Input
Amino acid sequence: MVKKAVLAVALAALASVAHAQNPGKPRLGLKAGATLARLTGNELDMLAGPNYRVQLGDRHTGYNVSLAATIPLSSTGLFTVAPELQLNHKGYKLTQTSLNTTELGESETLRINTVDRTLSYLDLPVPVRVNTNGGVYFELGPQVGYLLGSSTDTETYSKFSDSRKEATTKASSDASGDVAKWDFGALAGVGYQSRNGLTLGLRYNRGFQTVLDTKAIESKPKSANDAVILQVGYLLQLGK
Output
């Protein structure tokens, strides 16, 4: 009985895909939304070298804006390619805690750096979609990105062994020399697009390129972009 029920659901899903919405004409429009990003990879606790212990924080919150298109690939509307030119603000949060006094100032016994960094990319995602007749779609495809810039906000907490009080300082930097210029990855997502062009989508984007240059660190930790992207938009039909 259970097997029959599962088979019935599977057949219904296949029928829904097979009778996908009419592909119509190509569409062009704008999309925007939020990006929740972080770093993922191997030995990330060594990102700041052997004198600090690194702990990743919550996802960095940024935003994205896209010039988006949809181009039918089949007469049935089953497949669509949906390229975008996207300004995407990714990034990460982390905390660095000193493990010894090698890099600390005079009489400084502890230093904790709380880092919130924004990495701005010009991304080109090119997903292929599988559409259903209800407007729901599933997508998968490659993505390439170029780094436009970086901004870092750092809050530093210090303790001292002499009479100085504990201190907290803040600093900002636009340096990007330690970040790879190109990012290559893939995305997978699900969304909804109405016949009048209103669209809502949720994507997961994972980079394959190491983001931070760690050649000077013996363990050479690897870090990659990891982002959850929510978008809303409107795409106009081209042609009559």
